[in-house]
Amino acid sequence: MKILVTGAAGFIGAALTHRLLARGDQVIGLDNLNDYYDVNLKIARLDRLKAHENFSFVQASLEDRAAVEALFAKEKPNKVVNLAAQAGVRYSLENPHAYIDANIVGFTNVLEGCRHHEVEHLVYASSSSVYGANTNMPFSVHHNVDHPLSLYAATKKANELMAHTYSHLYQIPTTGLRFFTVYGPWGRPDMALFLFTKSILEGKPIKVFNYGNHRRDFTYVDDIVEGVIRTLDQNAPPNSLWSGDSSDPATSKSPYRVYNIGSNRPVELLRYIEVLEDALGKKAEKELLPLQPGDVPDTYADVDALVEDVDYRPSTSIEEGIGNFVAWYRDFYQV
Hints:
two-stranded parallel sheet, about 15% strand, 11 helices, alpha/beta, seven-stranded parallel beta sheet, 13 strands
């Protein structure tokens, strides 16, 4: 297949693109290479992808309507995976307009591209952040998610609503994937594991929010990629049993689906740090801080729908995943 992957220089986008190329797909990667975090890391990811003859790259922003329209018209991809977005909960308090531009305007341009060029299936990144103020755990795709706690979360919820509208109006199969705290080699420098590793190796204190009482459904990047591929290969079907009298948020009479991809094994942040300390062979100096605005105390994914529909459940332990990250980090940064 010919697959458009937006955010191809990103953490998950690059890992996904590698897998798609390895199985013989043709991939067009789009990324704007912005400086939200170290551009050199993005370029290093891209350099590995450019070694594949079936990979081509376009540097552009999703919110650039003309560029996105031209890309769809030229390439006419069979399927699209939209991973490009302005990420980060805390940054959305500092620069809200970046989230509207990339996550709302940009996603509209992707939907329009799919609409006008007969794309067979759109898979897009949502986030566990959409669960917001929910406390009923594990978080289920069948739960209501109308109380986001950050603008980032609100834009991801909006993406799900926008996708459903296009599935309803134009019969475009769309699948939203709610990612739960992704980590692993080639990860994002603004994420906890990266920040902790850098600080511990440099002998600096690490900032531990909510006094370490967070629980997170840490999900290894390879598990995320496998979930993306399995859902990509199975176009979202309509649910013939869906009823507006008792509506299920995860399905529809239209070709629309939403799934959680999480490890289904929440881990306390302090335990996560312990495993990292063991992998590094060095103890962390912890600066314990209160819960930050926009953050949620706990995440825990119910992945039954993913298991039932595509026969997949994430399985990588944090011991294995963190060990792989530390090995990559030491090699990449020559530490």
